[in-house]
User: Fold this.
Amino acid sequence: MRAAWYEKQGTASEVLIIGEMPDPHPSAGEVRIRVAASGINPGDVKKRQDSFSYGMPYPRVIPHSDGAGQVDEVGEGVSSEWLGQPVWCYGAQSYRPFGTAAEFTVVPVDQIARLPEGVSMDQGACLGIPGITAHRAVHVGNLRSGQTVLIQGAAGAVGLCAVQLARRAGAYVIGAVRSSSDEASARKAGAHDVVLVDAKLVQTVKSIAPKGVDHIVEVAFAANISADVELLNMGGSVATYATDNASPTIPFWPMVFKNIRLFFLGSDDFPRDAKMRAAEDLNAVLEAGWSGFEIAERVPLSEISRAHDLVEHPVRSGRIVVIVT
Assistant:
């Protein structure tokens, strides 16, 4: 099979290799997907860069955890009904060496979901990590219908999914964006109100939700935690999956006095059942009419280095998808 891989970490153009590898085959409980589109997430780029100083987990890594394609081979114990089915997958390169930047990828059957009718492979390739992270971020605090949720970074990949999923759960959704140009995206995803992240954020949100908010999905923990705590109700919660500062300070006593619950979310290690529920709910919102992500550019596998560069240095809003077949 044709694939992209790296055997050392560093700059995309210096370490990513395009070549031929033996075709993989599924073991028991696994399926093989003929990949049509491979999604790139910031975490894929950070692994290649060694941003977290973990080093090379395997001698050779095919990058990207998310993708979409068609099941063409199943392992022992897997229903043959999957054969020929269009699917999207997640976690292909989570604790595994070979992801979706190749003609074939092999994943456990519980890490695939059927691709709803009318949904493109491009969209399917973008769902995994952002969608499952968003679902956990929305529901980890036991969100109830009628509660108010603030989504920080509501125009990002996780944020858009979180807006849609919180709206589906019956919450009143406030989306916070960094630029007025992002407002339309957050509203299209289902936000009831959209606010700008600026010096007046707390004042603006309080004018919308004078009693405070019940739960916050947070993309920039260090920068926003003080404002978040000021906005939360007694017993409120924050679910955060990213930070702008790896060693943040927190307003400890205000959090104590409000009995704030804080959830740190790493998508690789969510409970299996939580991931499967997330996949079901993501398919449900797509089937209900959500149009999904804006695709900024479709890049052929042969130009994967350029695709990584576009994720690191975006030239337009939207997702970058690597086209494999």
About this structure: Residues 141-264 form a domain with the Quinone Oxidoreductase; Chain A, domain 1 fold (CATH 3.90.180.10). The first strand starts at residue 2 and ends at 5. Residues 74 and 80 are 7 Å apart (CA to CA). The chain is about 30% helix and 25% strand.
